[in-house]
Design goal:
InterPro entries: mtLSU_mL53. It contains five helices and two strands; from the N terminus they run ααββααα. By secondary structure, the chain is mainly alpha-helical. The chain has two domains: 1-43, no CATH class; 44-104, no CATH class.
C-alpha cells in the first residue's frame, strides 16, 4: 500500500469510539511489509494540537522527544493562554509591556515580620 504514497497522515480523537478504522489503517501502515515497500514514506512522527483559542502547535517526535516533554510544553502554553484571557477579561492590554526603566528596578519584597507583628497587635 505505501509504495503508492509519499505521506500518510492519520488523525483521530483518542476518546472517540469511531476511531477503529483509523487505528487499524495506522497499524497496517506500521507493518514491516508496508514499511519495506516504501522506506521513503516515513517522515518523523508529529503531534498537532489545537488550543481553545484556535492556535495550533506541532510537536515533532524526533530523537530524544518524550511524551512528558510535549505535555509540559502544552501545559506551559495553556497557562500562558489562561493568563492572557484573565488580562483581557480585566480590560488590560495584552501582551503586558513593562517599560525598560522598570525592568532594572529593585524589588524590596514583603517584610513578613511586619505583617506578623501587625496581626499580633
Amino acid at each position: 500500500m505505501l509504495k503508492f504514497l509519499s505521506r500518510v497522515v492519520v488523525e483521530y480523537n483518542p476518546l472517540d469510539p469511531r476511531k477503529a478504522a483509523a487505528v487499524e489503517l495506522l497499524a497496517q501502515c506500521n507493518g514491516r511489509k508496508a514499511k519495506d515497500s516504501n522506506p521513503t514514506c516515513s517522515p518523523p512522527p508529529r503531534v498537532l494540537v489545537t488550543y481553545l483559542n484556535g492556535a495550533e502547535e506541532a510537536f515533532v517526535a524526533a530523537d530524544g522527544a518524550t511524551a512528558q516533554g510535549m505535555r509540559e510544553q502544552i501545559l506551559a502554553r495553556g497557562r500562558l493562554l489562561e493568563t492572557e484571557q484573565l488580562f483581557r477579561e480585566a480590560g488590560e492590554k495584552w501582551p503586558v509591556v513593562i517599560p525598560e526603566e522598570e525592568l532594572g528596578m529593585s524589588f524590596p519584597g514583603i517584610k513578613i515580620s511586619r505583617i506578623l507583628q501587625k496581626n499580633v497587635d
